Amino acid sequence: MAVAESTAVGIPDLQGFLAQYEREYPDEVVHVETPLDGTFELTALAAKLEKDKRFPLLIFHNVVIDGERMELPLISFMMASRLRIARLLGVGVAEAGLACFERNQHRQAPILIPRAEAPVKQIVATGSAIDVRRFPAPRHHSMDPGRYITEGLFLTYNRETRRDNSAMHRGWLADRDEVRVWMGPQTHNAHNLRQWEEAGEDMPAAFWIGHHPLVLLGAENHVGPDDSHFESAGGVSGAPVRLVPSETLGEDFLVPADADVVIEGYMPRGQRKPEGPFGEYTRYVGPQRWCPLLKVTAVTRRRDAYWDDVLVGHTHWISSLAKEGEVFRQVQRAVPTVRAVHVPMSGAGVMHVYVQIRKTIEGQGKVAALAALNTQGSIKHAFVFDEDVDIFDEKVVLLGLAMRFQAEHGLMLLNGVTGGPLDPSMDDGHTTSKIGFDCTKPLGRDFAERLAVPAEVMQRIELSDFIGRDRLARIPTEPWG
Known about the structure:
alpha+beta, UbiD C-terminal domain-like, globular, nine-stranded antiparallel β-sheet, 26% helix, 481 residues, 2 domains
């Protein structure tokens, strides 16, 4: 990773983003001053907002853990609004995934700044002053064994290439200086750990928590093992990420200077301890596993730090948007007439993908489905539709599946394929069945026409003109309609 010596100002940090966003969209930032217990209550509040399809940015100023008010405020739901992320990317909601992918193709090298200029170095704790349990990390779900880092990026470096790798791995705050970390066996961080352990060495590592949303979006991008996540974050955010040397891991272990919190340490070679069970993104509880641990050697943070939390198992677009763009480009190589791709929350933002194409020859629907399934190991079901099906409206998607799909002609089944490690339906924990659904209309023969009202009539009729705006607002919404 090439890093330039510079004191140039990088992208806005989390604090700058929050201030600007609240100025522009004050109704979408909710400050909760009432005391709220970090055990389950935060999740309950957010889950009710989610059920109402409301995704404001939540700032909790009075989080209580074991009867004690935590010092730092907690922020959550930051990445739960697709509209919010689309605004930051400067595109419409439907185009956000492709925009994220395109920005990732224009990566920017990070820059190095002195410790004295790094906000994350304003408060430094080492030795007996370390206690990660002082952070307001919540306990989200009933079977979680404790409180977790969830929207933290776990940072390691490849022992041979020195390439940085940041990825969202959960971390259980098991003791004052111990964080137990689960890393999927196919992840690059797990590969890095194997390298260090095979060399008979402990692996230096760190969590960095809290940053501008586009930095998080870029750093979480799935890139190659020889690519830099800091460079990806620079591309997606549009400015280089500022880095600073760690406190205890050496001058060459660089961490984000504008993060809110950095928890650094090392993973003792060969050591494993129980971790979990844990409420996964799948909306199911995952099993307990034997996992490596981070022995914490330093905690650094900003004076005005927030604790950034993602509600695992609830709506967020951190990884889904980049996946949409990646699938789009992969399908486009096989079917140039692809129009859009959507990775919906109904598949936990991971396992379902909807593809919209303009079909010109028979067989393109199946080709598009296969290309989508081959893009990401975690994608399990690919649905391909004609361009008149709005793939961002799941009621329309299901109607298309019901009326345009014939299993005899449109079903493709792939057995024994490596799948996402958290899928609770996998018998052996490694392989899955993948399915492609070709829901496109057959070419060369008439197909029933969709119901339609002339567009100019739809544009002319306004409900408030006939019902009244106040009366209209009193009519209850019914999400199942």
